[in-house]
Write a structure and sequence with these properties.
The chain is 30% helix and 14% strand. It is of the alpha/beta class and 132 residues long. The protein has a single domain, classed as Oxidized Rhodanese, domain 1. It is globular, with a radius of gyration of 15 Å.
Length: 132
């Protein structure tokens, strides 16, 4: 087994120490706020199986930097808006690392601390894609 210089757990802990974290009940209260964009970083299969936050924008983790950067040919206009962006994944690890990276790029954002894993249990609305 390879010896890593830094574990992913340590990377997440370091990211969380320097980014804004939002608790689930606080984001539930902002689901319909037009000045908040909730961005789902999970894989499309996770969204299909477990559902998603209504109105959230799906941005696969692998495209994040490219979709956020206005100089990229893959830039998405949604990220050019003057709004509060809150990113989430399943448990808060991917989103913590993603928001730390975005912060390094100069893009201000927050993340859902516990991720989608506790969303429905805490009363958050969930939608499912239509079956094909």
């Amino acid at each position: 087994m390879p010896q890593l210089k830094t574990s992913v757990k340590d990377m997440v802990q370091a990211a969380r120490a320097r980014i804004e974290e939002i608790e689930t009940p606080d984001l539930i209260a902002k689901v319909e706020d037009p000045d908040v964009v909730i961005v789902d970083l999970r894989d499309v299969r996770e969204r299909q199986k477990l559902g998603y936050i209504p109105g959230s924008f799906h941005c696969p983790r692998g495209m994040l930097e490219f979709w956020v950067d206005p100089q990229s040919p893959y830039f998405k206009e949604v990220f050019g808006q003057d709004k509060k962006f809150v990113f989430h994944c399943a448990s808060g690890w991917r989103s913590a690392l993603s928001v730390a990276l975005l912060q390094d790029m100069g893009f201000q954002a927050a993340h859902l601390r516990e991720g989608f894993s506790t969303w429905a249990d805490q009363g958050g609305p969930v939608e499912f894609p239509e079956k094909r």
